[in-house]
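Work Package 3 (structural annotation) set out to generate three-dimensional models for the target panel prioritized at the project kickoff. During this period the team completed the workflow that converts sequence records into discrete structure tokens, so that structures can be stored uniformly alongside our sequence database. As a representative example, we reproduce one entry of 146 residues exactly as it appears in the project archive.
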Amino acid sequence: MSAREYPQRPIVGVGGVIVDQGRVVLIRRRYEPLAGHWSLPGGSLEVGESLAAGVAREMLEETGLEVEVGAVVEVFDRIMYDDQQRVRFHFVLVDFLCRPVGGVLQAGSDVDAAVFATLDELPSYGLTDKATSVIHMGMSLAEKGR
């Protein structure tokens, strides 16, 4: 059992909607929660780390990309229960719009794969409804920022 399971309080997580030329970065998670599923890159904020620094670190660790961290796309919670209806995972997630500024896309330590995908390709990755929604919001923000 990981330290993230059955937490005493919610864990702050940061994620990135990395947009480049009409494509977004997706990763396939190696560990729970959602092991084996495609999602947006991200992870837990460390003590003493700012949100922007945490996003930049997690994007580099999971995708090999150095990013410029932009606006907040969405803030939401992910609460997952076990069979006895006890809280197994509880994250408060803050997803940011990001733009790659260096590095090469590659799967990092916490992921099995990393890809660029277009909006048309998203259904083939079996993303959660929330991840799909956040991606669409991020792509919309990216378009407005051009």
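The chain has a mean pLDDT of 94.
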